[in-house]
Write a structure and sequence with these properties.
Length: about 180
């Protein structure tokens, strides 16, 4: 771990307010926060700004949860981010994914996913490699997603790519039996 979760004796009201966007008040403490949030607590102003955006993508986005989690899992796989992967596998299950479908995400959707979901994966790959979607993928996504949803899709991929970079760089360790 390069950047340790904020020590318990450093948690103050500023830290608690910054994390309250993601956590209920009773979990805004070093014992109940995830390793990721406890690491973010090292920089409360950044945490507050980032979490406001991340909460939108997770809870207010126009993307259907299944598409959101499909994109996030593909990012986590491509970026080799164990922390992100472990947390979003559970959210993917909640969104209706089977273990076989989750395995297909790692393979690039070659089998086990429908054509539209393969386009979602292809879009993540394109954004990661070229920082843009091809006209073909934009059109394929447009078969089921409107413009706002495609915008949320691009920002979701970008946000979770950023998170993967941060988690991997900081060395955020998996939470042992803690909720996210």
């Amino acid at each position: 771990m390069r950047l340790q979760p904020l020590p318990a004796d450093k948690w103050d009201e500023t830290v608690q307010r910054s994390l309250s966007l993601m956590l209920p008040p009773e979990r805004c403490n070093p014992q109940d926060a995830s390793n990721a949030l406890a690491t973010f607590a090292n920089h409360p102003a950044l945490a507050k700004a980032f979490l406001r955006f991340n909460v939108h993508l997770l809870y207010s986005s126009t993307l259907p949860p299944r598409i959101r989690e499909l994109a996030i899992l593909r990012v986590a796989h491509r970026r080799d981010c164990a922390y992100e992967w472990s947390h979003h596998v559970e959210l993917a299950h909640q969104a209706g994914f089977s273990d076989e479908e989750i395995a297909a995400v790692r393979r690039g959707g070659d089998r086990g996913l429908e054509a539209f979901e393969r386009a979602v994966i292809a879009g993540v790959d394109e954004l990661d490699e070229k920082s843009q979607l091809s006209d073909e993928t934009w059109a394929a996504l447009g078969e089921r997603l409107d413009d706002r949803q495609r915008m949320d899709y691009v920002f979701t991929v970008g946000c979770y790519t950023l998170l993967a970079m941060a988690f991997n760089t900081f060395g955020v360790e998996l939470d042992n039996d803690r909720e996210v």
